[in-house]
Fold:
Amino acid sequence: MAEPSQFLTPEPLHHWHKQFWDHDVKWSTRVVGADELDFRYSTIQPMVGFKHFRDGVSGLKQVTGRAHRDVERYMVGVIAGKAHPHFVIAIRALMDFWYLAQARQLDDTLLLRTTSSLQLFHDSKQSILDLHARVGKGNKPMDHFQIPKLELMHGVVPSVTSSGAVIQWSADTTEHAHITEVKIPGRSGNNQSYNPQICRWLDRSEKHRNFSLALSIQHIHSSRHNQNEGDLDPPDQDPMDNTDDEEDDRTPRGPNAAAQHQDFFARATWLSSNITPSTLLPLHTFHTETTAFQLNRLPNLKEVTVDKVATVFKVPDLRPALADYVRHTRGLHSTTFKIGQRRTSPSDADLPFTHLNVWYSVRMQMRTTDAIDTTDPQRLCASPSSKEWPFGRYDTVLLSNGTPLGPGLGGMVTQVPSHVC
Structure:
């Protein structure tokens, strides 16, 4: 009397991301065209921390789960405007379902939205067959959706109700362990007797880690003993400060860094509560209620005039925009300050400062929609014209006007290039 759907939980890596690669990508390639799809992916501006598909996606082989996720992020925007609207709705509905179902905490409202997204796909999926996007062997069109992974999607909501959030059953950890525990040790041998050589490599690596850990513990005890005796002076700078501007936000650092998770909110709170006379002000790590920011210790342009910055970044209304912002912070604006509105200050407005420090990038971190955790830090770039970037590099951000958005992009949102910020 067992019910498999209750104890065989969905698995995001293979059931959703692999399904996207095996079906959604193929459907989109047939509808949009391989050349057009590759061209559209190649024109997407590279972002730090995400893979850039300069040669497109139709010719990719042995794609990893990480690449699946990066392709997913752009698919709806890539096919929009070229594919039939009902086809775009069907693909977007599947995306909504997958992203909603990956939430770490789901309530009745979120489960209802997940079910509605799946129903929207079923309402629009006929367009996939009408466009002959679903084909079998010999490129023969198929007239059905007998896809096991698609059928498993109907068990997601019941599984969440009985077994908890689906994301906890993801096979990402075990799949990654296959690389660290099998592939890397296997490449370190001589391609002979794999099993004993891999076991020997893992055994020696564990002994090496334990020895390094013992030395680190001994070094910490020695340092504390010396500090108690007054032999060491306090450090000149905050040990949490980061000056590496070229480092990928997702690249782990230091021993056991793979398990580390940067929390800019905690860092900003710690810095603001431990200000000393030697602390560099203003703080380069700070946060609002929903977003944390981190700047490098040294700016890319130091002490540059406002007019010079406006010329370099091609922002002719920078001075009046800054003047409007200063008036807003001082409570001198009669109306609510909005980004992108018509400037009320003149082009030659006086400012309480004459020079600016300019950073070409900023790290940002958000709180998750359920507010119980933080997202991975991301880097936004804004740099002027150069040989590598003839038209400059301006990543795009979405800014809320203060209205609580909740899950998704509900409410009013303003889209502006990040260099305006």
Q: What stands out?
A: The chain has a mean pLDDT of 82. The radius of gyration is 26 Å. DSSP finds 14 helices and nine strands in the chain. The first strand starts at residue 285 and ends at 287.
